[in-house]
Amino acid sequence: MSRDHGTELIVALDVPTLDEALRLRDTLSETVSFFKVGKELFTAAGPAVLDELSESRVFLDLKYHDIPNTVAGAIRAASARRVAIVDVHTSGGRAMMKAAAAAAAESLPRPAVFGVTVLTHLGDEDLAALGLSATSAEQVVRLSRLAASSGLDGVVASPLEIEAVREATDDSLDVLVPGVRPGWASSGHDQKRVATPADAARAGARYIVVGRAITLSSAPADAAKRIVDEIQ
Predict the structure, then answer these.
(1) Mean pLDDT in residue range 50-65
(2) How confident is the model at residue 187, as a pLDDT?
(3) Residue 2 placed within a domain
(4) pTM over 0.85, yes/no
């Protein structure tokens, strides 16, 4: 199945308070309608942040990783808050991913479920330290195939693996890409497998997630507009 979509920007609201998140949403509202809520903001503000962002689309980035029944319950709870995307760790295995997909399918509105493959701060040497003989690219492909066969809608992978994922899964999965940094952004980051927005778009990313290049900018709206122009 071919997925002929454009690339869409998701802005990571990786801030410590609800007020900061809402200020960013308002600042970016003319350019961005899709936001990521991750562990920092969700832990600080709780599920109320999802209600406050209900007029926007939300990627709830909590990376569920537990026994199948627990993950299915979490997916149902997220669905009740009307999030657009949720994610699970593919390393939780086939039964867990199938339970997540089934829970999403039972929900209205139905969220897309993405599987996190190899976190973008990990390189080949980190996987070796974890006892894995595969390279990061090989591990991403292996886990993507597992995600596809388990009924997930997409995977989270670095920009460097987009084309390999699409080829290995017959283009059946959307690819959501963190580790995206425009060339003009500050160089300080904690990710190893990165690329520019234009590179990720050319490779076929369905979504790119950008945080600090926008949220730490002195002009966040201008930064977001530059990235949208770049991926288009």
Answers:
(1) 97
(2) 54
(3) no
(4) yes
Domain presence at residue 1: no
Half-sphere exposure of 180 (CA within 13 A, CB side): 36
- The pLDDT > 90 percentage for the chain reads 88
Whether 25 maps to a domain, the answer reads yes
Cis peptide before 16 (omega within 30 of 0): no
d(Cα 205, Cα 157) in Å, to the nearest integer? Answer: 9
173-215 per-position pLDDT tens digit: 999 999 788 888 765 555 665 789 999 999 999 999 999 999 9
Residue 48 domain-assigned (yes or no): yes
Count how many domains the chain has.
1
The domain containing residue 104 runs over which residues?
8-231
Give the mean model confidence (pLDDT) for residues 75-94: 97
Quote the CA–CA distance of 118 and 217 in Å, as a whole number: 28
Q: How far is CA 31 from CA 17, 59, 201, 227, in A?
A: 22, 17, 18, 10
Helix H or strand E segment including 229: helix 220-231
Contact 141, 131 (CB under 8 A): no
Catalogue the active-site residues: 63
